[in-house]
């Protein structure tokens, strides 16, 4: 049951925040909790690999483990030579300082607090976390430092990185048929492909494949539609990624897409001034360091429909 706070209580809480203002850098444990709460509000972001960095530059472990490491035990003659389980050492990251500043209308704050049974400060933080998570997911997939857009050029996202470095990549003249996607799976080295792979695509791209399946004369059994969305292609699940660029598909495990976060989160709420009175809103500022990393290029496939490759003549290697 939601604990509904009275108008008087909400107004008192808002007044206290507006009078005082605040500027705080969260402790490491609180910063980590704040980021995880924000990530949890995003459908796809919460499924990706998360790493908290102790410095602005560094490295994280690559994804994958070596195979065929079993050896014959020879009793007292056995040599403890050991096996390095890590597939390859590490992949670099370089954090970028990003910030979110926003005006949150008082009416929106009160509505959120009332419907969720939160106090005003909780409601304000929740609204900021939602916006931060939505923007982070957008940038994580679509970011492109070469783009002219002020937002997209903040950092290179997974799409740009995969287009440049993926072990398997194709740029067809149009979005390929599902049967062609099935052929693409066969291009991965056996030691890298596994059951954790996922097709990542936008809602519009997903709708394109819904239409393809519905227009087939016969059911080929290579795709599944559930509640109006394609949920399986060639035995692998499909993730519809909000805000992802249309006409692009990434084929990779969630754990191969990493968001790297700094351990310092700065939160500022400005004290009330003439601007906040006129806007009937409060001004909030949040700063966090972040980077996006593909942990193993051999475990990601990039496919788009804006190139010159003819899928009719496409034959997978091997």
Automatic annotation (TrEMBL):
SUPFAM superfamilies xref list: Major capsid protein gp5 (SSF56563)
Name of protein: Phage capsid protein
Biological source species: Enterococcus devriesei
